[in-house]
UniProtKB/TrEMBL annotation, chains A, B:
InterPro entries: DUF1989. Pfam families: DUF1989. Residues 7-172 form the DUF1989 domain. This is DUF1989 domain-containing protein.
Length: 206, 206
């Protein structure tokens, strides 16, 4: 498969990018099985961030669909899900994995995790993150049972699946190629994912 | 109906209490139709708090059931749902209502809201809250459709329904009798709710 992208999210690591209002990023599920935890923060205030609990209320839907806005903890649009070339199953209800998650799963040594990946990726842009917001877990399959059970489902996607997120305001968007290799959510084999950037073009609605 | 309780959560207002490890509180849905947004914070660090997204992962369930722990953002047990004398339908996925919620619903003037109620209730105990965690919305009915839709459902309870929450560590538990009167989640008529406190008794597992 030819990968013709601008940025890699290395397997088990994070990556953060700056988007100006009107710019977009495609998140590519290169191998079809990788969950990509995604966050967005307003540039002027990292405490003003994309919030899954506010987005669910405003859209009246468990996960965003094409055309839905993603809202901040002040209920302002920060991104729009402009395109979704995947089965459209994403997760908004599970916390990012963190060191405590892997300790509880029995890991004796440090396990890379999405929470630390967020902190690292933001630090590379010079931004300190103290709060880990609930992420938009792109491509993550968490079936909700009639009995309210939540299952760590296997991936539903295909290589090259992607979503396009367009910025509704100047923001930093952070990603983590989830290092989870104990539950089957990444098909047990964390992989790279990729980003394709769409800078502002003349005539774009910025 | 006779109300024999220790504390009132006044309609549209908040109330916070301190619980020592082993102590418990019953949250009484006095009129059967009132949603009670609930939060918990570790006494030694208000940034270490009960987290719905972590609780869902650890329990593998959309909402807690009897015997389930409620976990913090460091995945430590902070409360246990010890008893549930209600239909067992609670919400963990919707943000607390806030002033932006009511602005988006068309309110021209300030509307009381759960986020501000939390801040007020904690301030009465001398604790400053800067972050509004996603609450445990006791007695709130948000059906999830097969199409992933989320409905603002009408209440399912009966007068006097209650749940018992027991502290797994010293904490502050905060409540808001949700002021929502535009959607039908409180039966369109916010009411009081009540708290019954269970202090430590000799022989209790503290």
């Amino acid at each position: 498969m030819t990968i013709n992208c601008d940025e890699v999210i290395p397997a088990r690591h994070g990556k953060a990018i700056r988007l100006r209002k009107g710019e977009a990023v495609a998140v590519v599920n290169t191998h079809g099985t990788q969950v990509v935890d995604t966050w967005a923060f307003c540039v002027e205030d990292p405490a003003h961030y994309m919030s899954m609990e506010h987005t669910r209320v405003e859209n009246g839907r468990l996960m965003p669909a094409v055309g839905h806005m993603l809202f901040t903890n002040q209920r302002e649009p920060i991104l729009v899900l402009e395109e979704d070339r995947s089965p459209g199953i994403h997760d908004t209800i599970m916390a990012a994995c963190d060191r405590w998650r892997y300790e509880r799963l029995g890991c004796q040594e440090y396990h890379r995790n999405c929470a630390d990946n967020l902190v690292e990726a933001m630090a590379e842009l010079g931004v300190a993150v103290t709060e880990i917001p609930a992420p938009l877990n792109l491509f993550m399959n968490i079936p909700v049972g009639q009995d309210m059970s939540l299952t760590q489902g296997t991936p539903l996607g295909q290589p090259g699946d992607h979503v396009v997120l367009r910025a509704q305001r100047d923001c930093i968007v952070a990603f983590s190629a989830c290092p989870q290799d104990i539950t089957p959510i990444n098909g047990r084999m964390p992989t790279d994912a990729h980003l394709r950037l769409f800078p502002l073009t003349i005539g774009a609605d910025a």
